[in-house]
Write the structure tokens for this entry.
Amino acid sequence: MPHPGVPVQAVAGQDRAHRLRQGGQVADPAHARGTGAAPGRQARRARSRRGRHRDLPREKQEVQWRAPALIAHLSGTVRRAASDYVVLDVGGVGYMVSIAAGTRQTVPAPGGALELHIHTHVREDQLALYGFSSAEELELFEMLIGVDGVGPKVGLNILSAASIEVLKRAITAEDPTPIRRASGVGQRTAAKVIIELKPKLDAEEALAVLPRAVAAAGDGAVPKAVEAALRNLGFSSQEARIGLEAVDWKSSPSTQDALATALKALGKK
């Protein structure tokens, strides 16, 4: 501390008149700790301010992506067609639709009318349409692309390799041969298709055959009893279907006669 009465020499920059403004004195690095200005620490970035006579800035809102409406059916005029696609004019808008070989056989010449069942495949960077001449073909396609490793392109290739009846029969019989004919399908993929689709097709067949037999018999009790007996004997739903279809239900057979006919058709006497 300086002694009283001893003049203190002002440092350059500290002798401004009235000293109304802050001088140039700052803490040296050695004394900067504890003052809120640690050495090497960057100064805080200045906050953005709104301009004069302007509203406060609004928060940025994220734009949420919305999937387009799915197209389930198209009916229009054929403009052009190739082996794997068709351009369908619907109300002046041309839709390019990928198709399988079976559907291609139903496509008329340009200018002809065409109706297609549509599966809309939506991806982040693409919206693709796949068309089918029947709802049954569409359902099988959607089953196929539900299998791990089977995309829409491979699914179309499988449908192009054989008819729907042949493919379903091969899957229920666990025969991979027709499936492996498709381009891009190996042994592992064919096995996955059979493992995942066989239970679905078996259940589908069981639901489809029984109503037909019931309708033909006029009395649903006998066909249901025969179907249950066949399943209890260890036959699959596919085999039960064969047995039920072998019975002449219009003749109103008894349960025993119908079961005997079904077993005979299945090679059991």
